[in-house]
Write a structure and sequence with these properties.
With 289 residues, this protein is of the alpha+beta class. The chain has two domains: 91 residues, lambda repressor-like DNA-binding domains (434 Repressor (Amino-terminal Domain), Orthogonal Bundle); 170 residues, Beta-Lactamase, CATH 3.30.450. It is 46% helix and 11% strand. Strands 2-1-5-4-3 form a five-stranded antiparallel beta sheet. The longest helix is centred in the middle third of the chain and has 19 residues. The protein is globular, with a radius of gyration of 21 Å. It starts with a helix and ends with a helix. The C terminus is likely disordered.
């Protein structure tokens, strides 16, 4: 790990960015044009003290997960990301399945989407980043580890949690769509890839998956229109737009509603309540006694 070079690289990249480059409001009283350390730490979901120590050449070696967060926060392209990893004494991630690195072009679009749910996924259904509206609609998907990072894996191994956002009458179709999308990735990446690892695990753990897998259906799973169930807002009919990277390994998924519709009103409600749980059971526990 080259601490002096890493510290210098982080400072220079931070100074080269403007708040508006990363979806922040500049505000008054900014002494320098670049981002503040606290802003980079916030974007990377780490403590300001940890990031400050990295810039002061006294931090511990960052994990690969931490480096991926820093690369995303500093809007590094592929070459910049690989350089960051090498300075930190880590091997740069390979291209398989989109990794944990968000394509800068998709990140720039996501930064400008505040009023509608949007998230970036790999073609294995791994959520790389979500905006606030997506968290309010879908729940926070950033805490999963291992194979559970993949939505298709959770769909078949934890169906009670993974499927409740879809109406019961739509779940069979979604199961087929999940499997056919995984087969696309499997066909590109091969049996020795992470896609192959997911397939082998699901063949062992889910008879439902194994039966659908044998059908050899192949297609992307994103539909133009879908109904999602929210615990407070109820069913929401949304249009779905997908923007893929050139190699198809990542997708920016944007969920919108036509103006002046019931769905648009429900999205407006989500902007207000955010991730608060307003269910009657939770409300009762918060009522004054």
């Amino acid at each position: 790990m080259d601490r002096p070079a890493l510290a210098d690289f982080l400072r220079r990249r931070r100074a080269a960015l403007r708040p508006q480059d990363v979806g922040l409001v500049a505000g008054p009283r900014r002494r320098a044009p670049g981002l503040r350390r606290e802003e980079v730490a916030q974007l990377a979901a780490m403590s300001a003290d940890y990031y400050t120590r990295l810039e002061q050449r006294r931090g511990p070696q960052p994990s690969e997960q931490m480096l991926a967060s820093l690369a995303r926060a500093l809007r590094l392209d592929g070459d910049g990301r690989d350089h960051l990893y090498r300075l930190a004494g880590r091997n740069p991630p390979g291209p398989e399945a989109g990794g944990r690195f968000v394509a800068p072009a998709l990140q720039r679009v996501l930064d400008r989407l505040e009023d509608t749910p949007a998230l970036v996924l790999t073609w294995l259904g791994e959520t790389l980043v979500m905006n606030t509206m997506a968290v309010a609609l879908l729940g926070d998907r950033s805490g999963y580890r291992g194979l559970a990072r993949s939505e298709v894996y959770r769909w078949f191994t934890d169906p009670d949690a993974a499927r409740r956002i879809y109406p019961p009458e739509d779940r069979d179709r979604q199961s087929r769509a999940q499997v056919s999308s995984l087969r696309v990735a499997y066909g590109v990446l091969g049996p020795r890839s992470r896609a192959g690892e997911i397939v082998r695990a699901l063949e062992r753990e889910s008879p439902e998956f194994a039966e659908i897998w044998q059908r050899h259906e192949v297609r992307r799973r994103f539909e133009d229109h879908k109904v999602l169930l929210h615990p407070q807002a109820g069913p929401i009919e949304l249009d779905c737009q997908a923007l893929f990277t050139e190699d198809q390994s990542q997708c920016l998924l944007v969920l919108t509603a036509p103006p002046r519709t019931d769905a648009a009103e429900k999205l407006a409600l989500l902007r207000v309540i955010g991730t608060q749980d307003l269910s009657p059971e939770v409300a009762a526990t918060r009522a004054p006694r």
